[in-house]
Specification:
Arc Repressor Mutant, subunit A; 351 residues; alpha/beta; 44% helix; globular; 13% strand; 10 strands; 3 domains; DNA Methylphosphotriester Repair Domain
Amino acid sequence: MPIPYESPEDRWAAVLSRDRGADGAFLYAVDTTRVFCRPSCSSRRPLRKNVVFFETEEAAARAGYRPCRRCAPGRPDPRRERDSLLARACRLLEREERLGNRELARCLGLNAFTLQRLFKRQIGVTPQAYRRRVLAERARIGIPAAASVSAAAYAAGYSSSSRFYEGIGKELGMAPRQARGGGRGARVRYALRRSSLGTMLIAWTERGVCDVRFGDSEEEVVRGIEARYKEATLSRGDVPGFVGEAVELVERPRRSEIPLDIQGTAFQERVWEALRRIPPGETRSYADVAAAIGVKNSARAVAGACAANHLAVLIPCHRVVRRGGKLSGYRWGVKRKRELLRREATADPPP
C-alpha cells in the first residue's frame, strides 16, 4: 500500500485542499515569507514554485524557516487531541456493554456534558446510541451462524438476552428471527420513476426509505433491488409522499427530512451521517470526512463506506471527492455524480 502524502504531488494537493488528514504527515514552507505551516493552514495559498516540504518542524527550522503564527505547527494540535479522545471513547464503548456516560467521561478525564456534546458534534450520535449500534451490528453478523439468537446476543457483548430484545428490532431494521433467516420475511416495497438522470427506483420498509438507485432501464434497477433483497418479500407498492420528494431532490437539490431505514455497519452509519451534514453545493475529501468522525487516518475506510451507500442523493456520497477536488468513483456512474455536483453548485436545475 502506498504511503499517504509521500510524493510532492500528493503533498501539494493536500495543501491546496487544506487537508486536515495530512496534518502531522509533513509541513510545507514558503520561500517568499520564510514561514512553515501545517497542510491545513487557512493562510493564503502560496505559488507552487515557492513551496518546499519538510518532514519535521526541526528540519524546517534548521533550513531557516519560522513557524506560522496562524496554524502554530510547533504547538499541540487540539483537533488531534480531540480525535484521540474520541477514538479512545469508541474503543471503550465497543468493549463495555454497561458503560454509562459518566463512567466513560471519567475514564477520559472529561465531564459527561462535554463528552455528550463532543460525541454528538463529531460523530453525529450520542455515545449510548453508538454503543447500541455497535452491539447490534455484532449480533446481526453473528446470528446466522450462531446456535441460537441468545447465543449470538451474548457473543456480541450483551449482558442479558432481555437487553438484546428490548431494542434490537429498531437497530437492525428487522426482528431477530428475520436476521437469522437472512432477511426472509421482511417486506420491501418499491416504486419506479423517470428522472433527468435516468430511471430511479425508490424502495422503503415500514421504517423509511431503504434504497434509492439510478439505472438506464427499469429492468436494470429492478434486478439490482432483487439481488440486494433476495430473501425479502418485494412488491411494487403504493407511492407514499416521500417518493415524489426523492425524485424532486434530483432536479432541485436541497436538504431533506425524508425518513430513512439506514442499514449498515456502525462505522458506515457514522460516515453516512457525516455525509448528510455536508451542505448542498459543497464537497469534502475522504480525509475531511474521516477527520469529522474522529478517525483521521481512515480515508480509505471512508471511501469504502461511501461505495457501500445504497441511498443515492438522500445520503449524498456524491459530495465526497478526492484531494484537490478530483472526482472519484460513484456507484451510479461518474457522469451522474458530476451532474449532481454541477446542479448543486449552480442551483440551476435543467428545464
